[in-house]
Amino acid sequence: MNPPPEILPALDGLGCDWQRPASPCAIVIFGASGDLTGRKLLPALYDLFLNDGLPERFAVVGAARSALGDEAFRERARQGAREAGMDLGRWDDFAAGLFYQAVEYGEPASYAQLAGRLDRIDIERGLAPGCRLFNLAVPPVLYATVAQALGEAGLSRQNLAAGRWSRLVVEKPFGYDLDSARELGAVIAGSFDESQVFRIDHYMAKETVQNILVLRFANAIFEPLWNRNYIDYVRINASESLGVEHRAGYYEGAGVLRDMFQNHMMQLLALVAAEPPSRFTAERVRDKEAELFRCLRPFPAADLGEHLVLGQYAAGQAGGRKMAAYRAEPGVDPHSVIPTYAAMRLWVDNWRWQGVPFYLTSGKRLKRKVTRIDIQFKEVPHSLFRDSVGADLKANRLVIGIHPEEEIFIAFQAKQPGPRICLRTSGLHFNYSGPGDRPHLDAYAKSLADAMAGDQTLFWRQDGLELCWQFMQPVLAGCEVCADVPGQLHMYPAGSYGPDAALNMLPQGIWPEKPS
Ligand code: BG6
After folding, report:
1. Residues 45, 89: Cα–Cα separation, whole Å
2. Greatest Cα pair distance in the chain
3. First vs last Cα of the chain: how many Å apart?
4. What is the 203 CA–ligand 1 centroid distance (Å)?
5. Residue numbers annotated as active site
6. What is the DSSP string of 237-261?
7. How far apart are the C-alpha atoms of 55 and 20, rounded to whole Å?
């Protein structure tokens, strides 16, 4: 049945195109010869260009140690876009705005040269003088060096009244633990004000993740139920079928807790559990996230095993293909105790959530890639159908699918057609992409566009980051010891649902299937 037009007017959703960033600016990418730049950043910028998401006049300046020229840089960028399967029809117009400047990251003279080049490019390309977005696509050990050098070269200075701005875009990991996150934060703060810093979390840039706030706060029917009185538990799952791939060097120092929990899982938790901000603005949204992180019950370090299951993938099979164990992956220590899977039960100590467990699960080399949030409601207080159905009624569940299904699903009980009272689980289903909708924005394109527009809503703020590290610290400290003890790190076959031990901790199986 089609909804009546007064409920779903034809104009809904119009006027939601890109807002072209106002000031013609230069985007400087440090680490321009690296993988991230070629695979993600340049294709994302070209995507923005194709969709009018870049300012009318712009420059993209690659900066790295290699001695490349502008033309060689343009050619590499073209290859990246071709490999990403992009339409190269307007490539030449885009490529005219690409430049390359060799830099030595620790060398002040390099930054003076860069500053001079940027001034010349401002004139050549007719940019608003001094509007710069510095993107750190370098290895994390260089973040502090580059941020500090930019400050010393005067490149972080801005004069907003005169329309000159300077912003820094940083990728995770933001530190390795609480101390290093604070140190990095302090170095960056020595050059850039917090309002100039854009710490990317690509999960926040996913359309369906942003939709969580809209679902909760643009509708009146969910929020009254969104609390301990009606919700039994919340599950946030991000499982991946991919293994560690070519990233052993990084992953061996990170593991699933630093790679997924300290950032993406915490962001999902914040969006599901935070209190409503009074406006959808960066500071108000991030204030509420920080408040939520402050309410996390400190993890019971002495009793870690009760609330945390860690795993690592062993050899296995998926789709008839043999898959190597984590310890046999190239670059991984054959005795590694780094967890590739974790299931965690945590509690939010505030009025709204007291007593409601939150289960967070994430792992690599699992059966399939699924990112999904389940809000499990409580059973009805009294079942008047008990005599007829002979069992308890199934409680309602709201499923927020992020990947691969981008959907919202509400499961409820309905009468099965027939002469007797028989119940069945039915549901209402909303698919995020309707026919005729524009394709989803790439998360990097969204992040870069927001950074150019100066909108920090979808980026980590330093206080939220430190609060999460503070929460994770005892877990990490405990795990670095416990993962070593036989029996604490649960092996699971690659291609499986994860370690059985996690099943015992989770409310009902790892993959509660969607009711049909
Ligand atoms: C990254 C992690 O931040 O997120 C990766 O470093 C992980 O290990 C990836 O694979 C998952 O992102 P997505 O968008 O594919 O769910």
Report:
1. 15
2. 85
3. 19
4. 8
5. 264
6. EEE-S---TT-HHHHTTTHHIIIII
7. 6
Q: Is residue 61 within 8 Å of 118, Cβ to Cβ?
A: yes
Query: Of 171, 203, 206, 266, which is best to mutate to test ligand 1, by the most ligand atoms within 8 angstroms of its C-beta?
Result: 203
Query: What amino acid occupies position 28?
Result: V
Task: State the pLDDT at residue 424.
Answer: 86
Best residue among 40, 210, 236, 240 to mutate for probing ligand 1's pocket (most ligand atoms within 8 Å of CB) is 240
Which residues form ligand 1's pocket by a CB distance below 6 Å? 202, 238, 240, 259, 371
Confidence of residue 515 (pLDDT cuts 50, 70, 90): very low
pLDDT in tens, 226-235: 999 999 999 9
Structure letter (DSSP) for residue 514:
P
User: Scanning the structure block, which residue is given the tokens 């034809």?
Assistant: 10
Ligand 1 atom with the smallest distance to the CA of 244 is 8
Pairwise CA distance, residues 457 & 449, whole Å: 12
Q: Residue 311 pLDDT > 60, yes or no?
A: yes
Report whether 305 contacts 357 (CB < 8 A): no
Of residues 441 and 182, more confidently modeled: 182
Q: Is the pLDDT of residue 201 over 50?
A: yes
What is the rounded distance in angstroms from the CA atom of residue 197 to the CA atom of residue 171? 11
- Put residue 366 in one of left, alpha, beta given phi > 0 → left and psi -120 to 50 → alpha: beta
How many angstroms separate the CA atoms of 222 and 7, rounded?
A: 18
8 pLDDT above the threshold of 70: no
The rounded distance, in Å, linking the Cα atoms of 309 and 300 is 13
H or E segment to which residue 317 belongs: strand 316-318
- CB neighbours of 18 closer than 8 A, spacing ≥ 6? 48, 51, 52, 53, 449
Residue 365 DSSP SS3: coil
- Between helix 42-50 and helix 70-83 the angle, nearest 10°, is 80
Task: Determine if residue 320 is left, alpha or beta; phi over 0 gives left, psi from -120 to 50 gives alpha, anything else beta.
Answer: left
The closest-lying atom of ligand 1 relative to the alpha carbon of residue 240 is 10
Q: Which amino acid is at 117?
A: R
- pLDDT for 207-216, tens place per residue? 889 999 999 9
Q: How many angstroms separate the CA atoms of 234 and 512, rounded? A: 13
Domains, the chain: 25-171 (3.40.50.720), 204-504 (3.30.360.10)
Q: Would you say how long the chain is, in residues? A: 516
Residue whose structure tokens are 């909804």:
3
pLDDT tens digits for range 439-452 = 677 889 999 999 99
Q: What is the pLDDT of residues 327-350, one digit of tens each?
A: 999 999 999 999 999 999 999 999
Q: 84-93, 190-199, 243-252, 424-433 — which one is most confidently predicted on average?
A: 190-199
